[in-house]
Design brief:
Growth Hormone, Chain: A; single chain; globular; mainly alpha; about 400 residues
Length: about 400
């Protein structure tokens, strides 16, 4: 149910939307920082690429664990309560970075990042549908796309700011200090945001609880393959980002980690630009066809990345971000097409498929350790091939296919 503008003052709706949109920036920023830390911990704690990918395992594993509980909390207690819990977990996890840096132990970092991501799982579960309900139902998708733009800004700002703070820090500050200061500052911002949310009246639409309508989903081939495609897409996106700095510094020996981190932020800018362009192209091109085209292009770009061609492959790696931009929401929309009352249950499974980002990058890191990071990009090549297969062959519901 959408919040009615006739019952809620427009200024209240607008301010609530601004607050909710700030959450998109915050979890984008957190994700952008995560990929910077992979290379940082390899350098300062001596961990392998495969072991550093455990950060992604803890982070995206938390999304898998929290998806259903957060949805249930939103249904029972409302969006505001779910958002406040998410912000509390976010800030608490950020503060737990302090003892992890003091211990100088990589495995201890996994606990705070799991807690941070548990909070972000709550925020994403609540904020995505909430943004669509704060006003005119006809403009719900437009509002969500606007919020997603700020998510892209956060993803671009994360590696840029993280690179300056973490990699540009002087050796005299100590290995763990830059990370500690960064996350203490982040915790302060998150707690301040939580206070604003707590004291701000937030319109709370009634969540209509529906009976279990999940039966028969396994018979919907476009949905089942959509879950598979989403699993591998998220795996590809996370892997591409997690080892971008490794690839850049191996590919070009003149690049410092700080410079590579700055270049990494350009990738997220391309990601954001891709969302603008992709949304515009869908005015004339069916989403399934555009997804097919973009997936094919990314398979080709990954092959160029694997080839490690001087002066070319790093640009191909950056271009991946542009063509990844539409994949998550497009796969999501295609997978739930025609499911009617089963859409809620189907959506939960699609959110849980984010666990691909927790599992597959470890394989990519292991290959990078043993055969070089360029060879590791065979993994996202295969992942994008699965997305291509889905878009080309399985994305349309059976009922909509020509006999």
């Amino acid at each position: 149910m959408t919040v009615s503008a006739t019952l809620t003052p427009s200024r209240t709706l607008s301010f609530a939307f601004v607050l909710v949109t700030s959450l998109f920036f915050m979890w984008g920023f957190s994700y952008g920082l995560l990929d910077v830390l992979n290379k940082h911990f390899q350098d300062t704690l001596g961990v392998t690429k495969a072991r550093s990918a455990l950060l992604q395992t803890a982070y995206f594993g938390a999304y898998f664990v929290m998806a259903l509980p957060a949805a249930e909390l939103a249904a029972r207690r409302g969006y505001k309560a779910t958002i406040l819990l998410g912000l509390a977990l976010f800030a608490g996890g950020a503060l737990l970075i302090i003892p992890a840096t003091l211990a100088h132990n990589f495995m201890l970092f996994l606990v705070p990042f799991f807690i941070i991501a548990s909070g972000l799982g709550c925020l994403e579960t609540a904020a995505n549908p909430y943004a669509t309900q704060l006003g005119d139902p006809a403009r719900g998708a437009q509002r969500l796309n606007l919020s997603q733009i700020f998510n892209g800004l956060g993803q671009a700002a994360g590696p840029w700011i993280g690179g300056m703070v973490v990699f540009a820090a002087t050796a005299s500050t100590g290995d763990g200090d830059p990370v500690r200061y960064l996350y203490v500052a982040l915790a302060v911002v998150v707690l301040a945001l939580a206070v604003v949310f707590f004291f701000t009246p937030m319109p709370e639409p009634k969540v209509e609880r529906m009976p279990d309508a999940g039966h028969g989903l396994l018979a919907e081939r476009h949905f089942v393959w959509g879950v598979v495609a989403q699993f591998f897409y998220v795996a590809a996106q996370v892997g591409v980002g997690a080892f971008f700095i490794n690839y850049a510094t191996e590919h070009d020996a003149t690049l410092t980690t700080a410079r590579a981190s700055a270049i990494f932020s350009y990738g997220f800018m391309l990601f954001m630009a891709g969302r603008f362009v992709g949304t515009l192209l869908m005015t004339w091109i069916a989403p399934r066809k555009l997804l097919t085209l973009y997936a094919a292009i990314n398979v080709a770009l990954c092959l160029v990345v694997v080839a490690a061609i001087p002066g070319v492959s790093l640009h191909a790696l950056l271009a991946l971000f542009f063509f990844m931009s539409i994949m998550f929401p497009t796969i999501f929309a295609l997978a739930v097409q025609g499911l009617g009352p089963r859409t809620k249950r189907a959506s939960s499974f699609l959110i849980m498929s984010i666990v691909g980002g927790a599992l597959i990058p470890v394989v990519m890191g292991w290959i990078g350790d043993h055969a070089g990071m360029a060879a590791g990009y065979w993994v996202p090549t295969a992942c994008f091939a699965v997305v291509l297969l889905y878009a080309w062959k399985f994305a349309a519901p059976v009922s909509s296919r020509s006999p």
